[in-house]
Design a protein that fits this description.
CATH topology of the largest domain: Cytochrome Bc1 Complex, Chain D, domain 2
Structural class: mainly alpha
Number of strands: 5
CATH class of the largest domain: Mainly Alpha
Shape: globular
CATH architecture of the largest domain: Orthogonal Bundle
Number of helices: 17
Largest sheet: 3 strands, antiparallel
Helix content: 25-40%
Length: 456
């Protein structure tokens, strides 16, 4: 029996070696509970509170948008748009419009809404496309962030800290000056006042007070009266919900790493060979979540209103310098954080500005980024139309000097992959999706304490 077993093992090893997987570098260890905050299971009451906060428009200045509008369960924790339609818009996902009249959106949100899958893992210590929020034990708050010393202490992790910021953005959730007190505080860059005004809304809602008391029954952060509620409590609960509900680590690739050698198709196994080998994908998409959490310039097309940056000779603010905005180092210009590839089949559109609508299109861009930039098809973009916004969407992509600057910064050399390699690589990328992530209807609350509708 032992001889037969050894023979079968030898045959199996020879088969996987013939696919080129053996000798292509170490595979990451399988993901386990210990890779996540709270072992992947935050306290039920805290998660329940976080779910309601996440879907409640009470947290926006004009009470017309929630966190979930751009990160909804029904749109795979993103919004399926290249660039979000933020405060003032109407509807959900690709059906969302830009609003009407004086309540219409001021501009598109300048960067793609990143999905939230697995961001409760310990490895995710930085947030946002440019990494402007980063865990730092030396800082009094525990984080480097746009709020500087105004960011309060007591935040559980980077995911919770991230939840402090969309509510402080006029375009995303706060609204425009004179529309409401929160928008006015945002315009004045008084972030502590924004958070205090939102906390007061929660204190004034008896149902929320009860939920906060259940979620924080004891310890230094205990909520015993309405007056104890702070926006840090809210952010921690939102982070707990996101981390618990949207942990997905049972993809075919996960099962393969745990020893099920039948979990992935032959095409996916060949794609893994490309991913680790001549595709050189793992140079950046490394580790158990397929990201080095670093920053790279890969000539991604720049669409939308931009982040206010300007190349020499321009003053319209349509450029986006990426990581340079955080470090101040021109060497970081056009660099953006490597995204995780978990559930990547569900996380389009792709790129910091959502320029590519399909997984195949963004993979082909990586094969020759400069050629992809110059040959970019604007029809890839998914942008609800409005005449004054449309005029800004492709300003950079229609300017030869700006395209050349993005191209010159690219770090990726062209790769020679044939069509079979590409097909196999795509098969592997599909194997990074947990089947359970295809149906997130259970991650919706029946109602929220404000009484506001969940979507409109």
């Amino acid at each position: 029996m032992k001889t037969i077993r050894h023979a079968l093992l030898s045959v199996g090893l020879a088969f996987y070696s013939s696919l080129g997987i053996a000798g292509q570098g170490p595979q990451p260890d399988p993901v386990t509970d210990s890779d996540f905050y709270d072992h992947g299971r935050a306290a039920t009451a805290k998660v329940e509170l976080g779910m309601k906060l996440f879907y409640d428009k009470l947290l926006s200045g004009n009470r017309n948008i929630s966190c979930a509008t751009c990160h909804h369960a029904m749109t795979d924790t993103g919004d399926w748009l290249s660039l979000p339609v933020g405060e003032g818009g109407r509807g959900l996902g690709p059906a969302r419009d830009t609003g009407d009249g004086i309540s219409a959106i001021h501009e598109r949100v300048p960067r793609n809404a990143p999905p939230v899958f697995n961001l409760g893992a310990l490895t995710f210590t930085v947030m946002f496309h440019d990494g402007r929020l980063e865990q730092d034990p030396q800082h009094p708050s525990g984080f480097l962030s746009p709020a500087g010393d105004d960011l309060p202490a007591g935040l559980d992790n980077a995911l919770a800290a991230q939840a402090m910021f969309p509510v402080t953005s006029a375009t995303e959730m706060a609204g425009q000056p004179t529309e409401n007190a929160i928008a006015d505080a945002t315009a004045a860059a008084d972030l502590p006042l924004v958070w205090e005004l939102l906390a007061q809304r929660l204190r004034d809602n008896d149902d929320y007070v009860a939920l906060f008391m259940d979620a924080y029954p004891d310890g230094p952060a205990a909520v015993r009266t309405a007056g104890d509620i702070t926006f840090v409590h809210a952010a921690n609960a939102i982070g707990a919900f996101e981390a618990t509900a949207w942990r997905f680590d049972n993809s075919p690739y996960d099962r393969y790493l745990r020893g099920d050698k039948q979990a992935m198709s032959t095409a996916a196994l060949r794609g893994l060979r490309v991913f680790l080998g001549k595709g050189n994908c793992a140079a950046c998409h490394s580790g158990p979540f397929q990201t080095d959490l670093s920053y790279h310039a890969i000539a991604m097309p720049q669409i939308g209103p931009g982040k206010g940056d300007n190349l020499p000779g321009y003053s319209d603010g349509h450029d986006d310098f990426g990581r340079e905005r955080v470090t101040g180092d021109p060497a970081d210009r056009f660099r953006f954080r490597t995204p995780t590839l978990r559930n990547v089949a569900l996380t389009g559109p792709y790129g910091h500005a959502g320029a590519y609508s399909t997984l195949e299109a963004v993979v082909r861009h990586h094969l020759d980024p400069v050629a992809g930039l110059y040959g970019y098809d604007p029809q890839q973009a998914i942008l609800p139309s409005r005449e004054d916004l449309d005029a800004m969407d492709f300003v950079v992509m229609e300017d030869a000097a700006r395209i050349a600057a993005i191209a010159d910064a690219s770090e990726l050399a062209p790769l020679d992959l044939d069509e079979t390699d590409i097909a196999n690589l795509l098969a592997f990328l599909l194997a990074l999706t947990d089947p359970a992530a295809h149906d997130l209807r259970g991650d919706l609350p029946g109602s929220v304490p404000s009484g506001d509708p969940l979507a409109d």
